[in-house]
Amino acid sequence: MKRMIPLLAAALALATPFASAQQPAAYPGQPVKWIVPYVAGGGTDNLARSLAEAMQPSLGQPLVIDNRPGASTNIGVSVLMQAKPDGYTIMQAENAALLFNEHMFAKLPYKPASDFTYIGAIGRFPVALVVHPDFPAKNVAEFVRYVKANPEKVSYASPGNGSPHHMAMELFKQKAGLTITHVPYKGAAPAMTDVMGGQVPTMMLDLASGLPIIKAGKVRVLAIALPQRASALPEVPTFVEAGFSDVNAYAFHGLIGPAGMPPEAVARINGELHKAMKAPKVVKLFSEFGFEALPGTPQDFYKLSRAESDRWGKIIAAAGVKLD
């Protein structure tokens, strides 16, 4: 018996390192790729980089921004769908991937309801109706009267077909009974440039891109498309106050991953995202952008996305918007 004890101890000593080696490493054990489906330097990219910077110290690994613009964010989604669902590739998704594309594209190679892991909502950029300073309307009522008195003579700019700005104006057109010609651009910057220059008289503009030119007086803002006034522009009325209670539109953002991500990875990123939203630099950025944070569980994010997809599906169908 005495002879067996040393043998048993030796066996345990050999087994212990082997057992420890089989334990899964704590997540994350390597850098995490963060896909942004837009070009660098825009509002979405700036938001992603600010959040990633705030999350990284606590997460313990770099969050590497990977810009994959194009095709109504479908290029970024394609990269995400090809990634392993191991928690090391995530994407900042917005209206196109979450709400719009499934209603606009006849053949979409993914289903938002089942092909994503919903990690957490980030929040939403308010969208505002702006006009060139010389446009003969100082409020929404005057805008509606002018457009109706000049049918098919007024055009509006947007950053592109299927953008939140495009669909926000289509929603307003439906509710107000207006005829306005859509002029799509390749991005918010050229669209804003032509509205400031008077080549196109109006557009729906997100505050992340447009707040500086609004405050500089280069465009006049008539209304905010949210139920309550935006903290960044408290003096600007809402469409609700103008008599259009259903004109509620915004650029909605959240983090997603490929379907089947490990629950522990989802919980960790969701928790770090919530902490980052409270960081002073991020709070300041949100305030400057007029951005409304929407912290919550993955389940909250999924339910909100699906409800908004149903709402916008009806609006898109009524507008007859189709993309190939």
Automatic annotation (TrEMBL):
Domain of life of the native organism: Bacteria
Signal peptide: 1-21
Matching InterPro entries: BUG, Bug_dom1
CDD domains according to UniProt: PBP2_Bug_TTT (cd07012)
Keywords of this entry: Receptor, Signal
Gene3D superfamilies: Bordetella uptake gene, domain 1 (3.40.190.150), Periplasmic binding protein-like II (3.40.190.10)
Family: Belongs to the UPF0065 (bug) family.
Identification of the protein by name: Tripartite tricarboxylate transporter family receptor
Organism: Variovorax paradoxus
Taxonomic lineage of the native organism: Bacteria, Pseudomonadati, Pseudomonadota, Betaproteobacteria, Burkholderiales
